[in-house]
């Protein structure tokens, strides 16, 4: 189901429910107002009828029927649209006695319809009748003096007192009832109780009208709310549908076009578009890295097959000589074996260097951590000194220079730089002398660590200083693979640094100077993110040592 349809259905259900809930509250308020109007009308009628009821009780027992009939007519005519019932206290209570708890009328009004009841003297005495108000009470002697108008049947038990209007029920019918004690200033005068009734159906017509209108509004609101919500939802989701069509039309295999989104002023849609653009950018980045990895693997295979052909053919030739000429002298055999050993060493060095280049092309940013550069250089100097005890190495290292680095790659760069100085930086007949220095430099906003390696060899001509970093660039008498300085250039570029060759400051020789961005004294260990170069294809291409 579409989102706009879901919204329309939800609103089509929610709006009628809200209308019905509001209508129920409105009905309660209307019913309350109707009862309040009924009660006010009952009090008004009771105030008008009370003097007439008092006069009727005074003349009712005097033996003057005509005057009694006139007072009764005046009382009942004044009742207008309400039911009137006047009861006299029985003589058992005595003059001025306590009002009865329950008045069981004994008149002759019949079935309690809304028509005019008959009036006249009534037989006193209790009458058994079912209770109509849901309470338990005992009947007391009394008699009905006069009654007329809409009221409950005489058999319906009334409360002992109803100084505030109450509801009296009998079957499916209900009345609002109000009672007033009829007393005279003379203690010897008869006393009684005046009841005023209003049928409960008096306000039902108004309440039913309100209820019907609420139901009608709910029935009309359901389809209207659904249609209106559908129209609004269709308009609101239009930017989302546009975004969906644009995203569905993207095909990385056939086009380089990416998601183009203009702000729609709908926050959720704009956020979704930004998320899709981020996901697509990450996809493109990973696809590029995958392509680079495939290119690296192909280049590794091609380069390895090309560069390994010569040493392998030399080793095959020497093995053929040993096989075909078993009569070789010990001196010739030893020379061939030495050549095999040299070829094997070169072959292993070449494979290790190619693997290192491939690792540098494939390393990810999460492999970079905070490294103490002074410790890395110190360990590398000690390791080279151990393998080349004849070399004289001096070092001046400033401790505590931290960089964000891939430690294996950084160690590989320093090792190759020091080995290059030991192997190629000496003079014939003299021990190799090399100096290593590490110091801080740069402005506080951009601090760097400067590593310099000096040797006292023949130096490097200016026109050759860029070429020595190319793959397999080496002198004819070099025992290396021609990849050592290429590894140095690769790793320094990965670490966003630079490498430069110059003349030694004191005497002949060459100086290799490396500059790496370092962490400041106030930088924490976990707030720096390494940004790797966009191009990492050192194994397949090489434009220069300080490329972006």
Automatic annotation (TrEMBL):
User: Positions of the region Disordered?
Assistant: 88-136
Q: Classify the source by domain of life.
A: Bacteria
Q: What is the E.C. number?
A: 2.7.13.3
Tell me which UniProt keywords the record has, alphabetically.
Answer: Kinase, Membrane, Phosphoprotein, Transferase, Transmembrane, Transmembrane helix, Two-component regulatory system
The portions of this protein that span the membrane are 214-233
Looking at the record, the residues that make up the Histidine kinase domain are 303-520
Give the subcellular location: Cell membrane
Q: Which PROSITE patterns match?
A: HIS_KIN
Compositionally biased spans, kind Gly residues: 109-118
Catalysed reaction(s) here are:
ATP + protein L-histidine = ADP + protein N-phospho-L-histidine
Q: GO terms for CC? A: plasma membrane
- A Gene Ontology molecular function term of the record: phosphorelay sensor kinase activity
Gene3D superfamilies per the UniProt record, alphabetical: 1.10.287.130, 6.10.340.10, Histidine kinase-like ATPase, C-terminal domain (3.30.565.10)
Q: Which PANTHER family does this chain map to?
A: SENSOR HISTIDINE KINASE TRCS, SENSOR HISTIDINE KINASE YKOH
Record's protein name: histidine kinase
- The scientific name of the source species is Streptomyces glebosus
**Source species taxonomy:** Bacteria, Bacillati, Actinomycetota, Actinomycetes, Kitasatosporales
């Amino acid at each position: 189901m579409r989102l706009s349809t879901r919204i329309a259905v939800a609103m089509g259900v929610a709006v009628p429910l809200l209308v019905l809930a509001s209508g129920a509250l409105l009905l309660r308020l209307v019913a309350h107002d109707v009862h309040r109007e009924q009660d006010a009308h009952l009090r008004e009628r009771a105030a008008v009828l009370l003097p007439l009821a008092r006069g009727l009780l005074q003349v009712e027992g005097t033996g003057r029927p005509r005057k009694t009939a006139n007072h009764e007519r005046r009382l009942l005519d004044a009742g207008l649209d309400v039911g009137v019932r006047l009861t006299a206290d029985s003589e058992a209570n005595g003059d001025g006695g306590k009002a009865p708890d329950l008045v069981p009328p004994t008149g002759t009004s019949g079935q309690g319809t809304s028509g005019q009841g008959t009036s006249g003297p009534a037989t006193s005495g209790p009458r058994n009748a079912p209770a109509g108000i849901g309470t338990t009470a005992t009947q007391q002697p009394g008699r009905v003096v006069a009654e007329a108008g809409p009221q409950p049947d005489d058999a319906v038990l009334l409360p002992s007192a109803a100084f505030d209007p109450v509801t009296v029920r009998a079957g499916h019918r209900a009345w609002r009832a109000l009672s007033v004690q009829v007393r005279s200033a003379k203690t010897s005068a008869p006393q009684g109780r005046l009841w005023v009734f209003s049928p409960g159906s008096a306000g039902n017509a108004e309440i039913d009208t309100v209820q019907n209108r609420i139901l009608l509004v709910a029935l009309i609101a359901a389809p209207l709310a659904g249609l209106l919500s559908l129209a609004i939802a269709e308009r609101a989701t239009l930017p989302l549908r546009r975004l969906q069509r644009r995203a569905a039309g993207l095909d990385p295999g056939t086009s380089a076009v990416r998601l183009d989104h203009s702000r729609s002023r709908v926050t959720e849609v704009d956020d979704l578009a930004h998320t899709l653009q981020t996901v697509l950018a990450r996809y493109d980045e990973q696809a590029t890295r995958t392509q680079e990895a495939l290119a690296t693997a192909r280049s590794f295979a091609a380069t390895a097959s090309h560069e390994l052909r010569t040493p392998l053919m030399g080793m095959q030739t020497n093995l053929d000589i040993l096989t075909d000429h078993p009569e070789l002298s010990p001196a010739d055999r030893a020379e061939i074996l030495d050549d095999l050993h040299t070829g094997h060493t070169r072959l292993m060095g070449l494979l290790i260097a190619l693997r290192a280049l491939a690792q540098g092309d494939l390393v990810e940013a999460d492999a970079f951590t905070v490294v103490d550069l002074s410790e890395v250089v110190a360990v590398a100097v000690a390791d080279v000194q151990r393998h080349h005890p004849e070399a004289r190495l001096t070092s001046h290292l400033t401790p505590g220079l931290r960089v964000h680095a891939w430690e294996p790659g950084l160690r590989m760069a320093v090792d190759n730089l020091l080995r290059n100085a030991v192997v190629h930086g000496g003079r014939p007949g003299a021990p190799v002398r090399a100096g290593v220095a590490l110091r801080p430099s740069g402005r506080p906003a951009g601090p760097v660590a400067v590593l310099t390696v000096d040797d006292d060899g023949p130096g490097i001509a200016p026109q050759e200083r860029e070429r020595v970093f190319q793959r397999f660039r080496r002198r004819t008498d070099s025992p290396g693979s021609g990849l050592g300085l290429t590894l140095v250039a690769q790793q320094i570029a990965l670490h966003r640094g630079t490498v430069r060759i110059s003349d030694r400051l004191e005497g002949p020789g060459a100086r290799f100077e490396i500059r790496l961005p370092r962490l400041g004294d106030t930088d924490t260990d976990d707030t720096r993110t390494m940004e790797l170069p966009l191009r990492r294809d050192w194994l397949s291409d090489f434009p220069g040592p300080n490329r972006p």
